[in-house]
Amino acid sequence: MYKEMPALSLVIVLAVSLSVFAQQRSQAAQVAEPKSVVLLFREDFKSGLPNQLPLLPEHVTNSNLELKLYGPGAKAGKDGQSGLWLNDEEDPANPGQKVGYIWTGVAPGSWAVMLKEKNNYLDLRGPARLRWRTRPRGLHTLHPLIKLADGTMLVADYAEPSSTYWRESEIYFVDIPRWRTLDPATVAEAPRKAGEPVWTDKVDFSQVDEIGFTDLMGGAGKGAQGNSGVDWIEVYGNPVKRGNASPNP
Length: 249
Hints:
The chain has 1 helix and 15 strands. The chain is mostly beta strands. The chain has 2 domains: about 30 residues; about 200 residues, Sandwich (Jelly Rolls). Strands 1, 2, 4, 5, 7, 8, 11 and 15 form an 8-stranded antiparallel beta sheet that branches. Strand 4 and strand 5 form a beta hairpin. The radius of gyration is 22 Å and the shape is globular. About 5% of the residues have low confidence.
């Protein structure tokens, strides 16, 4: 009996040590959360082009960004009359001022526009935020999207409502109540694993690979009010060098 006591003591000491280590890691993670942010990027999609063109990767103006399109409605069809377009037209609220923007009116299905910073992951913790100028119309509402370093795509339970005119707004990621997993191929809700919740409010924003938006719908056609428009987007957070980032758990 007495010979077994040291082994039991060792188990207790080890358990306590692991508990302390876990607490220290949790505290370290809290301390590491950024308290300030910088402008990671701004994207003004190209203007001054012909009135309507299929949206292509070369239509981004920031050389540090890569434009990525997802979903069956994103890419232009062979007829050249479908998919996401880049429009260039006069701002109805500011006569004489042109706006170059992404337009979804002839997208035949669900779509997603994502921007990838070539050199850095995005740390969107703390006071990180998104600013954009948008004009959803009809029943269309624009949702922020993120794609994590492990490939998980999440859509925010937050949406910019319909607007007659272009509107600027700002969203703090910490204020988005919950997120839902999307299938990048369909830009629809991803199948859930057994026991997995429909929504999650626990997202690790420390290594975001891509960020963008969707309205989860196809367009209603030319001249119709059922579409979304995005003029520009800004993202504030902190850069994390891709080569130096730690693997996601």
